[in-house]
Amino acid sequence: METKFMNVQAKTILIVDDDIYIGDMLEEVLTKEGYTPARAYSGTEALLYLSSRRPDLILLDLMLPGLSGEDLLPALEGIPVIVISAKAETSDKVDLLMAGASDYMTKPFDTAELLARIAVQLRNAPFSGRTSILAFGGIALDTMTHSITVSGTPVHLTRTEYAILKLLMQNPSQVITKSLLLDRISRDTPDCVESSLKVHISNLRKKLKNVDNNDYIESVWGIGFKMRSELN
Question: Which of 71, 105, 124 delimits the end of a domain?
């Protein structure tokens, strides 16, 4: 007899795992249980997904290409995360739970137990609407908490720097003119005027570049600024 743990109402669960076999197995199990599974095969791909959608829960592997699960975890604040990893040391589990993971399961795992743990996390999770995370390259910006990470490393920005970066990341393929930039952020940052804009932009670029050596923002001479399309 098939067991249903709860009325899942087509809740979306993002599987972040580069192991095709495990990912396929999880996708099949979740689909049979009535969930809507989504896939990401790397930490960077997960950030790209989160830039436009917000899953109800994330199943996160740690050993990912590029951005690891540990590095990705700070960008997942506000979403229940169940870590699924071959690491079995108690210290690893404690560190990840303290870093924000909701639960931890060691590979290999029992699918019935996993489904039960998913049901518990979804039952306890607060209601959340559209994703609050903007992502570009290695940058993850949470518009709800105003936190910024670059390749998983927290970066402290001033109020003005945050407002500039948020606007540019909301329009990553567009050149934002100086006048439009000043107009859009003027309510939140009255200290930013045309004469100081270049200084704020320069400081912002340095803070981002210091983390992963990417110059994320480019100047378009005589017009304004945009997110750089070609990164390291």
Answer: 124
